[in-house]
Specification:
heterodimer, A: mainly alpha, Helicase, Ruva Protein, domain 3, 2 domains, 8 helices, B: alpha/beta, Glutaredoxin, five-stranded mixed beta sheet, two-stranded antiparallel ribbon, cytochrome c-type biogenesis (chain B), redox-active center (chain B), disulfide bond (chain B), Periplasmic_diS_OxRdtase_DsbE (chain B), disulfide oxidoreductase activity (chain B)
Amino acid sequence: MARVSVWLLILLAALSLPALAAVEVRQFDDPVLEQRYRDLTATLRCPKCENQSIGDSDSPIAGDMRERVYQQLQQGRSDKEILDFMVDRFGDYVLYNPRLEGRTFLLWGLPAALVVLGIVLVILLVRARRHVAARGLSETERARLDSLVNRQGAHHDTVYHDPAHHDPVHHERNE
Amino acid sequence: MRRRLLLLLPLLGFLVLGGFLYRGLSMDPSYRDSAMVARDFPAFDLATLADPERRVDASLLEGEVTLVNVWGEWCPTCKQEMPQLLELAERGVRLVGVDYKDTRAKGRDFLEEFGDPFEINIFDPEGSLGFDLGVYGAPETFLVDAEGVIRYHHTGYIAPEDVSRVIMPEVEKWRE
């Protein structure tokens, strides 16, 4: 049984090879450059496929874009220059991480504004509650509280301070 | 009374959110603004499809409003689009083709089979001009004015009804 599973696993791995082969392997002499390549291809969105980065997509245009990223990295261009190059042609659409500018201000600002609003609301609510707690009781409230406390107290007396009937130890000694 | 109104706040928030999401339902997720409109047609230096010796550049597009259509033999929609392009040529629109990521032989066969409304075809086997145009598939069509500035970008199929409804009005608009 175990042997069969191993063979099945090998078969599955072999079947998945063509999918991997769609995205080419690139050689980098410099590990920093390789990391930048990975980051850039992960943050650039494939224009054809809507929900994939160019690093994940096997569409032809994603391949072309990876090729350009690779070439430009080898030419010593900065990340910003490469991203500008892509946005210049394909628009802001290709940025998974939109830039902070006039048009995207709402996009970036709204979540922050909501968080600030939430914090302000919590502070206001806590303050209002504290105010209520600190306020003294009114006459009627005081009277009602007293009557409640007294009734409770009287009840307790009958339960715990009547040894003749309720304390078994005392009762035994009496016998 | 003010407290009562505050209770309506979550409902208001829900309605705003609902409005956003409802609008999102009818939006086309594949639609995006073109980055190319109102920009100069990108510089290029490529051979023509008909004659490998003849090289053309962006000055080809100056002097007259031109419709630049990016096509390829491998693109089935381009075949369906061809009758509309032929009609546009018949209506007096100047058309220039870009044979995108194709081989010469296949490109020529395509025009022979489906018709050739193009004044000239730029041969772009590597897709380099296509890349500079921000093309990510075919067909795509660009309207270029007499100064060589891109004025309209049509991504995808030009349907028969688009000829009179969309393309011709754009052409007329930029001819003036």
